[in-house]
Amino acid sequence: MSDSLERASEMDAPLQQLKQKIDAEPAPRSGGSAIGGLSLLLVLLLACALGAGGYWLWPEFQQLQHDTAVTQQNLQRLTEQQQQQLDAASQLQQQIQTEQQQRLTQLEQRLQQQQQQVLTQNQAQMQALRQLVQERDSAPPRHWLLAEVEYLLQLASQKVWLQQDYATAIALLGSADEKLSKLDDPSLLPVRQAIAADSKQLKQINVPDMSQLYIQLQQMRKLSSTLPLKQQQQAEQTVAAPGHQLSQWRETLSYYWQQSWSQLIRVRSAVPEDYFSLSAEQQLMLRTSLQQQLLLAQLAAMQHQSQVFAAALQQASDQLQRYFDADNAEVQQLGSELASLAAVDVALVQASPLTSLAQLQQYQQQLTESSL
Predict the structure, then answer these.
(1) Which domain holds residue 158?
(2) Which of 202, 240, 266, 292 is the most buried (most CB within 10 A)?
């Protein structure tokens, strides 16, 4: 409040000076004095209005200046905070970029290390391969021949145990012995003796040609569908007519009795020939039954079941003799083939283990130890 009074007194000081100057001047004339008084009154009113306006507006002006200063301070503070946030974000971004760069550098280093390791391994493998090739190239022909003989003996053993192909095994053993004979080395004599013993053992095994046997049975099945069956008609039994003599009345009575009742009832013992008058369906059933027995013999031969094979052939032979025409050449040929096949033994024969491969491996082991 004191500040307002001081400001008001400061503003009234010019008015007091102006009033003193007016009082010091001489009084004008009456008309002029009226105008002067009016002017003075207006000036006073204006001064009062200005004073009152200054009195009322000066606090507002100070408050406005104060608010402006506070706003500027807040704005400066916000600017500083924003700048700090920008600096922090920039530092964080720079830190993230640095970490990413470090990780990328580490990954590149690991990748380079792995590539270097793979390259080193490949180079080592290539070097080992080159050395192996050089060793094999510089190896004497003796080693190559022994390797070929070992492969032939291994293959022969597989043929014996896995496929029971004794003929191929004998051929492989002969080829291995031929290669060993080219070396002309007395130290290989035990190996050649083992090969000879294995070959002799396999040659003593009598194994039928299963493929040929299968094909033969297949052809017999096809032939059975065209073989002729027995189609004999039973001849009627007739009784000779008796004479007309009175002493033969018994024969005459018996003759006419048979003639009267033979057309109604015929009683006699059944014979095999009664079944030879067959219909088309019965003929088909007989041929199908014969083919089934031959097919059973095929399957038994492939599975090395000798008992089933012999039983199926015997059943087929019985059916052929009973129901088919024995005078036909094809029937006779099929019967002879069945008889020859019945003597074949289809049982699986197991050979003893081959000793030639083990003998050769023992020789190679001794050769390696002696070279060391």
Answers:
(1) 141-206
(2) 202
